[in-house]
């Protein structure tokens, strides 16, 4: 991919501009919605009218909202999560992708879709500071690696975890990641994210076979291909419940 060409695309977008795309289940791609077809009341009108559709909303600079309506299927969420990273790289390289589900919209998302008015919260539009994740320098190669991890995180956000379980390890393309649920602040709103921590390059694992004690493997397939493997462990609450039921049955 020509990274410089993608950067030029993002630089040509006016600061504060908003581009909206809807996900087409049949093609598996996002299609741009013309600015003329968006009502004066805002993008919110389109979101409400199509509760089973996923949308990509680019807010310059440097964020992309991946929005799922209340009737969006798990399959559509999964497919759109795979497609959004490529769209981001083509339209606004370096932008942060944030997934939003109906009913849990953070304030910044409500502002750009006109679900809420910044003035009602004493917030001046344009006052927030944004920084790109990639600027073109050699030092930013680590940022590109982080973007690939971000794509995996997006997939995980679309897959419900079985009740009473938590993710501990993810295996993707022969790389192992520890899973950490992180929270960060964005324009006054708390956003929860899945943080993947790759196995240290300095770590040395002896050759041999290993048992994943107390861990339950779960496999994610798409089109007959193994996409990733999750290693789940029981939550402390589930362990306590099982212990109580075990005592009752004795």
Q: Looking at the chains present, what oligomeric state does this protein adopt?
A: single chain
Note the beta-strand portion. 25-35%
Helix share bin: 25-40%
CATH class of the largest domain: Alpha Beta
SSE arrangement, N to C: HEEHEEHEHHEEEEEH
Q: State the helix count.
A: 6
Which class best fits the helix and strand makeup?
Answer: alpha+beta
Average of the residue pLDDT scores? 75
Please tell me the CATH architecture of the largest domain by its name.
3-Layer(aba) Sandwich
Looking at CATH, which topology of the largest domain would you report?
Severin
Whole-number count of domains: 2
> What characterizes the major β-sheet?
5 strands, mixed
Rg over alpha carbons = 20 Å
* Strand segment tally: 10
CATH homologous superfamily identity of the largest domain: Severin
Write out the strand line-up for the largest beta sheet, numbering strands in chain order.
Answer: 2-1-3-4-5
> Shape, please?
globular
Low-confidence stretches: 1-11, 127-136
Span of the ends, CA to CA: 63 Å
